[in-house]
Design brief:
It is built from 5 helices and 9 strands, in the order E-E-H-H-H-E-E-E-E-E-H-E-H-E. It has a 5-stranded antiparallel sheet with strand order 1-5-4-3-2. Strands 8-7-6-9 form a 4-stranded mixed sheet. The longest helix is centred in the middle third of the chain and has 32 residues. It starts with 8 loop residues before the first strand and ends in a 12-residue tail after the last strand. The N terminus and C terminus are likely disordered.
């Protein structure tokens, strides 16, 4: 994070954090409105699609079992082949789960009265500073386990890299990457906080937070 709050900035973060998620103490007049980390289970399902991968693995194992019998193998052969393939997939699923856990533990989202700060990165940790004046709009949607995700549309002149942001980026928006707060608890409440902070910062009604998902009909999430 940087003291310059008029531009998007990112920096490598190797120092001890004076405040969790912030590499520097907040300037005078700035205060934290909300801070939190994503839930590992939500990251596993929503980002790494662990459930879909598990279903795919099950289909392949069953296919291997059936084709072994079809090719003339014995039941013992089919069981052995399926067991070997299951072990391989089990290792892969465990690695994905571990990556999801590491991602959640290394991530910290912070909303202040002047910006959104994202401390992200597993192997290389960096802090992304998103001043309100650079945030054009936001989109909220439901995520697994009762969590939510908020994607931020930033100004066209923002220099952001999808590769650096991922997995904290809206999927398939590579030309103009959108930073995304993922797997956050009580997403509607956080969306209200962000909308109110944007409004207070600009002195006029901020762009509405667009809502998709099961709770799209609840006005509390769309307050801006």
């Amino acid at each position: 994070m940087t003291n310059r709050k008029d531009a998007i900035a990112a920096q490598d973060d190797f120092d001890v954090e004076p405040i969790p998620g912030l590499p520097e103490a907040l300037p005078e007049g700035e205060r934290i409105l909300w801070a939190g980390a994503p839930r590992a289970r939500a990251i596993a399902l929503d980002v790494f699609h662990l459930r879909a991968v598990a279903i795919y693995a099950l289909v392949i194992v069953l296919w291997r079992f059936i084709t072994t019998l079809y090719d003339g193998g014995t039941v013992a052969d089919a069981v052995l082949n399926a067991a070997i393939l299951s072990a391989v997939f089990a290792v892969g699923l465990c690695l994905l789960a571990l990556l999801a856990l590491s991602t959640a533990r290394s991530t910290r989202y912070t909303i202040t009265n002047e910006r959104v700060v994202m401390r992200i990165g597993v192997a290389l940790t960096l802090t992304l500073n998103l001043p309100f004046r650079q945030i054009v709009s936001a989109d909220y949607r439901d995520a697994p386990f009762g969590t939510g995700a908020i994607a931020l549309t930033v100004a066209p002149n923002a220099k952001l890299s999808y590769a650096i942001l991922w997995p904290h980026a809206r999927p398939f928006r590579m030309a103009r990457p959108q930073p995304m707060l993922r797997g956050i608890n009580d997403g509607p409440h956080v969306a209200r906080i962000l909308a109110a902070a944007l409004t207070a910062s600009r002195g006029v009604a901020a762009p509405r937070i667009h809502v998709t998902g099961r709770t799209a009909g609840r006005p509390a999430q769309a307050a801006a």
